[in-house]
Design goal:
The complex is a heterodimer of chains A (253) and B (57). By secondary structure, chain A is mainly α. Chain A is built from eight helices and no strands. Chain A has one domain. In chain A, helix 2 runs antiparallel to helix 8, helix 3 crosses helix 8 and helix 4 runs antiparallel to helix 8. The longest helix of chain A is centred in the C-terminal third of the chain and has 44 residues. Chain B starts with a helix and ends with a helix. Chain B is rod-shaped and about 70 Å long. The chains are: A mainly alpha (253), B mainly alpha (57). Chains A and B meet through helix 3, helix 4 and helix 8 of A and helix 2 of B.
Chain lengths: 253, 57
């Protein structure tokens, strides 16, 4: 990773992508398309969920909650995986954009973890008769929510911001063990939450008329997340630029 | 009219279904608005600083 590296190696050097100008140009090129795609997917998913998908033979119309609950929960895990991966890149290669990405993604992940918990609670009350139970899936999701909060708080908890961000990255990596625990919690502990219907090794255990709106919503939520993280990263990079410009003026150059 | 009322009643689950959708819309909308606002603020700040330094030199 030094300047003496062969050109072929340099081409694959991660730091090529650490250039904020390059990133901003790329983000500006994809953002209009990505936000349009997000809007189309969410609209189609919403129509599918609310107008097309049939009521469940056991749960009746309460199953409509699934179309916001399940994508929120998928995204909560996807966002945490993204935060952990970005933290690894930031720690190992000291990639500055990776650090910005991790901190742009984590409040969004926290928001979707909250949504998964809240919509789950609204679904649990009529189906299980309780807003909350200390079921393995629910408890491990609550732990995920606290991991997100810890990640957000740690970054600002040190006098030296670099140390805070390093501590947050370590927390994100250590906390990643919780992700497979959440995924397999419904298989390891046979408690109240139902097992996977879509992400399983055999065929989905859900009818196509319910599966397609769920998948469209899931992809729509993911597109929303990527769009939002790009916008947040752009804002963070501009904040750094404004700070640098002010510092230059104070120095008088 | 009756059909619409039946639909909105969600088979008796309206008090659970509509808050779930409302909360999701609120959180996602809030995230989007906050992100765009923050971007605009910083964009304006950078543009102003760049104008100033261009004017000085």
């Amino acid at each position: 990773m030094t300047d003496t590296a062969a050109p072929a190696q340099r081409r694959w050097n991660l730091h090529r992508w650490a250039n904020p100008g390059r990133f901003l140009r790329l983000a500006d090129a994809v953002l209009p398309w990505l936000s349009a795609l997000t809007a189309v997917l969410l609209a189609a998913g919403l129509v599918g969920a609310l107008a097309v998908a049939p009521p469940d033979y056991q749960q009746g119309m309460s199953v409509k909650i699934m179309y916001v609950h399940v994508p929120s929960a998928w995204l909560a895990l996807f966002a945490y995986t993204a935060v952990a991966a970005a933290s690894l890149v930031a720690l190992v290669w000291r990639h500055p954009l990776a650090d910005i990405a991790a901190h742009a993604a984590s409040p969004v992940g926290a928001a979707f973890t909250f949504l998964a918990l809240a919509t789950g609670s609204l679904w649990g009350k009529p189906m299980w008769g309780a807003w909350w139970v200390w079921d393995a899936r629910l408890t491990s999701m609550l732990v995920l929510f606290f991991l997100y909060l810890g990640h957000m708080a740690l970054a600002g908890a040190f006098e030296d911001p670099a140390r805070g961000r390093k501590a947050a990255a370590v927390l994100a990596l250590v906390g990643f063990v919780n992700v497979p625990v959440i995924k397999f919690s419904v298989d390891w502990w046979n408690t109240l939450h139902q097992t996977a219907s879509v992400m399983r090794f055999d065929d989905p255990a859900i009818h196509a008329s319910m599966l397609w709106p769920l998948l469209v919503m899931g992809i729509g939520f993911t597109a929303f997340f990527i769009t939002l993280v790009l916008v947040r990263m752009k804002a963070d990079l501009l904040a750094v630029r404004a700070r640098n410009l002010r510092a230059m003026r104070l120095r008088g150059d | 009219m009756q059909a619409l009322q039946d639909y909105l009643a969600m088979g008796g689950y309206a008090p659970y279904v509509w808050p779930a959708y409302g909360l999701t819309a609120l959180v996602m909308g809030g995230l989007a608005v906050q992100a765009v606002r923050r971007l605009r603020t910083h964009q304006r700040a950078v543009a102003a600083l760049e104008r100033e330094s261009a004017g000085e030199s």
